[in-house]
Amino acid sequence: MLAAGALAGCERGSSAGGGDSTAGPRGCPAVLARAKAAVERAERNDAPWNGPTHGPRAVPGKTIVYVAQTMTNPGVAGAAQGVREAAKAIGWRVRVIDGGGTPAGIQAALSEAVTLKPSGIVIGGFDPKSTARQVAQANAAGIPLIGWHAVASPGPSARPRLFTNVTTRVEDTARISADWVIARSNGRAGAVIFTDASIPFARHKSELIRKGLARCRDVRLLAYENIPIPDAGSRTPQEVSSLLSRFRDEWTYSVAINDLYFADAAPALRAGGRRGSGPPFNIGAGDGDPSAFQRINHRQYQAATVPEPLSQQGWQMIDEFNRAFSGRAPSGYTAPVHVSTAANSAGATSWNPPGYRAAYRKIWGS
């Protein structure tokens, strides 16, 4: 059995004969019961809007620059689209600059954004510490920065200085992903985790998933695959083919920090003779872009996702900027965790809390 510390440092998949486990009798009846209850709550679609209903009226004439880690990341792109839509509703202008997924490209994109002297800048899906010089320049110029998945926790950040960071709670997303595997497998699974260890947020999430799975003795972690998101298209099929060869029918579940891994895994799973409806049964611990919903709804190599409410988060970022421009504090809102499957998505290609557009429009007076 591979020690947890060694596993955390793996640079690609590593097998562990017994997998991570906890002490005690076989199975995990108490953990299983809690997991099933949590998943049942998270799969509900009828929760009312619990976000902000009061705030400042729209400040006119603002310009926002959204700096994207890479627009090939569906989550980053989906949040950007939400920002565009909300900016139109409030009467602002938006420009998107794509960092291309490389450190140099992201630094250049943020440098360009600062040079444009916009009203505000979105840090879209990358670690602000990797652009410390540009962040310092924006801070010195008095340009508010709002992160999307930029740091580990939602809310304001002092170092780096962000007015707020918009994301679901990574602890909730990781926990419900692990709960889904435990609940669906009745506590008996051979699991693989896909992550991008170059992104601190993603690495933290995958470590939390690993710990969540380890709560159940008979959920064995077969491999921990570190595949950078920009390389997912080329590397994931190769790694999946290798996993199929190594583990065969032992591999029954997968959790990925981003749904896009399963788009890239599908051809290799198909070539390996696996059915689209599984196993392995795959859940994406984040994003929930339209292509993920299509795979889920058509039962093609993805069974579930824990979707970020990408459109709502785009609207929230515009609302948070409006609060910053008005001298108000951040809203403090964090969207609830949700699990989407073919059974509860009703053919939809996204998930967002109901009522958010009307709530924000009412706040802004638009």
TrEMBL record:
Pfam families according to UniProt: Peripla_BP_4
Family: Belongs to the bacterial solute-binding protein 2 family.
Annotated GO MF terms: carbohydrate binding
Keyword Signal belongs to the record: yes
Residue ranges annotated for the Periplasmic binding protein domain, each copy included: 64-324
Entry protein name: Ribose ABC transporter, periplasmic ribose-binding protein
Source species: Streptomyces himastatinicus ATCC 53653
Listed GO CC annotations: cell envelope
